[in-house]
């Protein structure tokens, strides 16, 4: 999902637009306070949140669920009368973008929606009654000019473009280019480039489908445009590699200009090595100098100028390394976690199990584990750092690995482009937290 | 194979194969379901040895150690004994992992959301194991064992079943209700030809054939590619799909499902999404039991869904009810189906 002003591009994954910068702060020590929690009362498959995204100014936040429903939140303007209610998010609009996926045959369409506000309506039509019924022309004796009268604000979402029929496999990500003219949609084997104005034609820029499907051993897992260079994009694979491509080099970008892959650590090798190296998300930093990738157990930051190994590696939940077999059994090992940068690229955040999510400060190398759960969710409740006990004695507030709930996973998170406000999707529930200090 | 769900019994038997054996995974001790699997596949374990061990390491065990019954050197024989035990437990684990992976591949169509990436990763894992077993020389033994006697497959099936049943008495309380699991009995498992025995023998044959990758699958390779291309170019949703079902069902009962066929199921058949073809699609596989199961599992009713966002609509402060622009076609499809079923059933 992409938010661009009042336009939303809805498709398969989640990509961020570049935002403003902010001076680096020791914010790991900050306190995160709950702003909004949205509970879903019925836990059906279609209520699971599948994407969360802020728009480029942070004024709007959109979430989409598997039922094809999109909800947009808008931030209240600051008001001097109610300073304590500064900048809260309220529901702004909801609409049905895609039909719920009964048999998943339709999950290959990208729709561009325009959300518009109407707060006036015309009155005084000549040919229609106020109810809308057509009047008998014979009864009209005079003409009048319709006037606009104020009405209650109505927010409408209208589909502006539907881009379809270009994907044979399920779309896993979309990314709008920095030129705001094109975007790309990615499925397991192909990447297509679209013009935002043209819906019936797309260009295939990457195709890794083998002639013989028997030979298929690698799929595309995510892709993103560079935030500033409109000809550059990256895509990640299930084998843990990232390819950077330049569209100027050739029409079909099967040849990469850069190839990022970390050599395997022989001491850690197992039958699950390849699976846990599969990259579930790739994100450029706002600056465009770095790349972040998420695989099953770690988050890595890469320098675009160094292909041989990542600049930084952060362990998200290394205690799971000894449980890989069980996680393979129950398919959790295939969970696709996303990762996000904060506005200044100094902090990165990603989700984990048990409704935990983790933040890593790149400067201080400190990290924190927080939990998004209903038990800890009184309004304005402050999040308490959590800790997983790996072995030995368990302290009072720690939780042991064996007690983790693997059905509660945080796959999708979003960070406001320049403020310390985060949105966290925990299965069906949406949490928005803000930095307490700023709230005053 | 169509992505629409197979019949109810297939699913329930499939889940029974992957029954709940909590022994091996006691150390994890938490509740979870297969991501994306609506019927809530519970924890799977094929051997009690499995879950407690760290991930397998290559070259960790000295290969080919034999027990030494030498009189003199007690120490040496102890170490060898331990080595042999460790090696055989490693083999057991590896075998279990292979079995589990093959079954996952076979049953990938039963996921709520088809996942090509997952299947590719599982297939790669299978290849890795097979390569290692080939180097070991143990692959030869495996293929012999399974391709030889016809008894082994059902023995294995029964063994798994017994293992799982004995666990039921002291099983930890199920945190997810596995609807299909409860409905399935042991007799059905053994007697059911369509899935259980076939799938096991499919598994077995895959184990056999996978060792000679490429040779056995040559025959279906070409037809696979052709079928894929056809599917891509074919714009008729209705008839094209029926053909697909027939040939693929035929293929699955004839012989093992190839990797290509498995991957082929993830392709979305491009079709003109007209109302006619949508209706045709609805009718092409109408099965009451499926419909019931589906509505049960996904909570979708023919009545409009009262989701949380509907509540939100009433709570949203300054906005009147937002207009929902595109009518949910699926709901009207369900309504239509309901209506038609009423007519047919005459209620």
Please compute the radius of gyration of chain B using only Cα atoms. Answer: 24 Å
Number of extended strands of chain A: 30
Q: Identify the biggest protein-protein contact and residues per side.
A: A-B, 85 and 94 residues
Strand-residue fraction of chain B? under 5%
Strand content of chain A: 35-45%
Give the % helix of chain B: 55-70%
Q: Span between N and C termini of chain B?
A: 33 Å
If you average the pLDDT of chain A, what whole number results? 81
State the shape of chain A: globular
- Strand order, biggest sheet of chain A? 1-2-8-9
General form of chain B:
globular
For the termini of chain A, the CA-CA separation is 32 Å
What order do the SSEs of chain B take from the amino end to the carboxyl end, as H and E? HHHHHHHHHHHHHHH
List the total number of helices of chain A.
3
Poorly predicted residue ranges of chain B: 1-73, 149-255, 270-278, 285-329
Pfam family, one (chain A): WD40
Organism (chain A): Labeo rohita
Family (chain A): Belongs to the phosphatase 2A regulatory subunit B family.
Keywords (chain A): Repeat, WD repeat
Structural description of this entry:
The complex is a heterodimer of chains A (440) and B (347). Chain A is mainly beta and 440 residues long. Chain A is 3% helix and 41% strand. Chain A has three helices and 30 strands. Chain A has helices at residues 273-277, 324-329, 436-439; strands at 2-4, 7-10, 32-38, 49-54, 60-65, 69-75, 89-96, 110-123, 147-163, 171-176, 182-187, 190-195, 198-207, 220-225, 232-237, 242-246, 258-260, 281-284, 290-294, 298-303, 312-315, 339-341, 347-351, 356-361, 367-371, 388-389, 399-400, 412-415, 421-426, 429-435. In chain A, strands 1-2-8-9 form a four-stranded antiparallel β-sheet, with no helix packed on it. In chain A, strands 3-30-29-28 form a four-stranded antiparallel β-sheet. In chain A, a hairpin with a 5-residue loop joins strand 4 and strand 5. Chain A starts with a strand and ends with a helix. Mean pLDDT of chain A is 81; it is low at 10-29 and 101-106. Chain B is mainly α. In chain B, helix 2 runs antiparallel to helix 3 (116-136), helix 2 (74-106) crosses helix 8 and helix 4 runs antiparallel to helix 8. Chain B is globular and about 90 Å long. Chain B starts with 7 loop residues before the first helix and ends with a helix. Chain A: Keywords: Repeat, WD repeat. Chain A: This is Serine/threonine-protein phosphatase 2A 55 kDa regulatory subunit B. Chain A: It comes from Labeo rohita. Chain A: InterPro entries: PP2A_PR55, PP2A_PR55_CS, WD40/YVTN_repeat-like_dom_sf, WD40_repeat_dom_sf, WD40_rpt. Chain A: It holds the Pfam family WD40.
């Amino acid at each position: 999902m992409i938010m661009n002003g009042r336009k939303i591009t809805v498709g398969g994954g989640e990509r961020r637009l570049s935002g403003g910068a902010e001076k680096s702060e020791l914010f790991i020590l900050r306190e995160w306070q709950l702003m909004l929690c949205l509970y879903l009362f019925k836990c059906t498959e279609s209520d699971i949140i599948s994407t969360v995204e802020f728009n480029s100014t942070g004024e709007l936040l959109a979430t989409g669920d598997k039922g094809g429903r999109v909800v947009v939140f808008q931030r209240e303007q600051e008001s001097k009368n109610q300073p304590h209610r500064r900048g809260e998010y309220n529901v702004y609009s909801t609409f049905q973008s895609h039909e719920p996926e009964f048999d998943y045959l339709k999950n290959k369409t990208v729709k561009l929606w325009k959300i518009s506000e109407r707060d006036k309506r015309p009155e005084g039509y000549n040919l229609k009654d106020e109810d809308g019924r057509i009047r008998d022309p014979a009864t009209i004796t005079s003409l009048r000019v319709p006037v606009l009268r104020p009405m209650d604000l109505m927010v409408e979402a209208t589909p502006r473009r539907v881009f379809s029929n270009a994907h044979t496999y399920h779309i896993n990500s979309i990314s709008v280019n920095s030129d705001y003219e094109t975007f790309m949609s990615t499925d397991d084997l192909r990447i297509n480039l679209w013009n935002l104005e043209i819906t019936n034609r797309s260009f295939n820029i990457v195709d890794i489908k083998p002639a013989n499907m028997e030979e298929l051993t690698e799929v595309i897992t995510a892709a993103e445009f560079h935030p500033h260079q409109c000809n550059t994009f990256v895509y990640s694979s299930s084998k843990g590699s990232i390819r950077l491509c330049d569209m100027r080099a050739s029409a079909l970008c099967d040849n990469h200009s850069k190839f990022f892959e970390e050599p395997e650590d022989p001491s850690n090798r197992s039958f699950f090595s390849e699976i846990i190296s599969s990259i579930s998300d790739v994100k450029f930093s706002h600056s465009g100098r770095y790349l972040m990738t998420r695989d099953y157990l770690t988050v890595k930051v890469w320098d675009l100028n160094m292909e041989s190994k990542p600049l930084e590696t952060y362990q998200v939940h290394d205690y799971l390394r000894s449980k890989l077999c069980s996680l393979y059994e129950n398919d959790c090992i295939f969970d696709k976690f996303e990762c996000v940068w904060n506005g200044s690229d100094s902090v990165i955040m990603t989700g984990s199990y048990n409704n935990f999510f983790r933040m890593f400060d790149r400067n201080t190398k400190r990290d924190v584990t927080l939990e998004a759960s209903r038990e800890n969710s009184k309004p304005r409740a402050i999040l308490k750092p959590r800790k997983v006990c790996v072995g030995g004695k368990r302290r009072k507030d720690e939780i042991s690995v064996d007690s983790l709930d693997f059905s509660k996973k945080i796959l999708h998170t979003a960070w406001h482009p320049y403020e310390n406000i985060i949105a966290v999707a925990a299965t069906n529930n949406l949490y928005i937290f803000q930095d307490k200090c700023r709230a005053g | 194979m169509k992505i629409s769900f197979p019949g109810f019994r297939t699913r329930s038997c499939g889940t029974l194969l992957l029954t709940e054996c909590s022994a091996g995974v006691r150390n994890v001790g938490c509740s979870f379901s297969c991501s994306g699997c609506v019927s809530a596949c519970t924890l799977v374990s094929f051997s009690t040895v499995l879950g407690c061990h760290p991930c397998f390491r290559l070259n960790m065990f000295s290969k080919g150690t034999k027990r030494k019954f030498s009189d003199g050197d007690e120490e040496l024989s102890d170490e060898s004994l331990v080595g042999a035990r460790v090696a055989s437990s490693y083999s057991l684990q590896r075998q279990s992992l292979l079995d589990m992976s093959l079954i996952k591949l076979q049953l990938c169509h039963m996921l709520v959301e088809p996942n090509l990436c997952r299947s590719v990763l599982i297939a790669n894992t299978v290849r890795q194991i097979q390569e290692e077993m080939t180097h070991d020389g143990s692959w030869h033994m495996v293929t012999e064992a399974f391709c030889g006697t016809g008894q082994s497959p059902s023995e294995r099936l029964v063994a798994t079943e017994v293992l799982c049943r004995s666990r039921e008495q002291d099983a930890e309380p199920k945190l997810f209700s596995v609807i299909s699991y409860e409905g399935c009995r042991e007799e059905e498992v053994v007697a059911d030809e369509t899935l259980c025995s076939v799938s096991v023998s499919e598994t077995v044959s895959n184990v056999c054939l996978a060792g000679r990758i490429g040779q056995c699958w040559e025959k279906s390779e070409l037809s696979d590619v052709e079928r894929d291309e056809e599917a891509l170019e074919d714009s008729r949703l209705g008839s094209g799909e029926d053909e697909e079902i027939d040939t693929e069902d035929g293929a699955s009962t004839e012989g093992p499902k190839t990797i290509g066929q498995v991957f082929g199921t993830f392709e979305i058949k491009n079709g003109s999404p007209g109302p006619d073809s949508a209706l045709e699609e609805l009718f092409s596989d109408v099965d009451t039991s499926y419909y019931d199961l589906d509505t049960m599992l996904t909570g979708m009713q023919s009545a409009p869904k009262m989701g949380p966002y509907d509540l939100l609509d009433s709570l949203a402060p300054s906005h009147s009810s937002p207009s929902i622009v595109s009518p949910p076609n699926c709901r009207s499809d369900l309504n239509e189906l309901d209506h038609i079923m009423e007519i047919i059933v005459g209620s």
